[in-house]
Amino acid sequence: MPLTDLTDLTVRGVPVFVHTGGRPLDPARPAVVLIHGAGMDHGVWSLQSRYLAHHGRSVLAVDLPGHGRSGGEPLGSIAEIADWVVALLDAVGLERAALAGHSMGALAALDAAARHGGRVEAIALLGVAERMPVHPDLLAAARAGDPSAIDLVIGWGHGPRGHGGASGGGCPVPGLALIPAARRLMAAVRPGVLGVDLAACDGYGQAADAAGAVGCPALLVLGAQDRMTPAKAGRALASRIASSQVVVVPQAGHMLMSEAPDAVLDALAAFLSLRRD
């Protein structure tokens, strides 16, 4: 574990783990908070967090409460997650930050920007749509801790690249097979957490109103082969945000950060005005 990771941080009295990308958190540098999706943790940003931290940003790749190495219970609604992100900024002494979120994390970033605009510099929303309904059978399986829920999320979440070959490989990173890696990540989730997360996504019906209230710049990164939050739905959400841009990644599904790490980094670096080597 890098010494720069925040391992003794508490937010609202609950211990929280934050990965800083291998560099100390520097309040003098512009910050970006990376918010993971349902049933996941900071590790989904492993191919982006280090780069961002070494190219001009202070990085806070969070484990939300009840996830990864953070304590507490999972938060039951998107609004609660958004408010928690602002409380995290307070805990580390940051007045403002850019927020980058994936899926559930994207809804939280959107909601935070709409209701806490003075604290949010910009938002990058990956794998997002105005509505994220979850089938009742999947919700029930996730709440019960049925392993089939993880298989369904992983199967639907990956595009053609993730399903390439018998092992579900196809990853641009040598030695990493996408679907097995995602399965290992989600297998570590605590019982019931995935169900809470999916219910939060299913129950969030305020995205359209939130988009209209966003006053900061927004980037939406969408997978052309995303079956969970189709690019068409992401574009519709973007159209409601006053200052937005859209990047559609060819051949990528919902798990954009691992399926297309370079494309995601290119989009984030340009949006956050970083130098891209």
Automatic annotation (TrEMBL):
Q: What is the lineage of its organism?
A: Bacteria, Pseudomonadati, Pseudomonadota, Alphaproteobacteria, Rhodospirillales
User: Which Gene3D superfamilies does its entry note?
Assistant: alpha/beta hydrolase (3.40.50.1820)
Span of domain AB hydrolase-1: 32-267
The identity of this protein, by name, is Pimeloyl-ACP methyl ester carboxylesterase
The source's superkingdom equals Bacteria
**Family annotation (InterPro entries):** AB_hydrolase_1, AB_hydrolase_fold, Carboxylesterase_BioH
For this protein, the record's Pfam families field holds: Abhydrolase_6
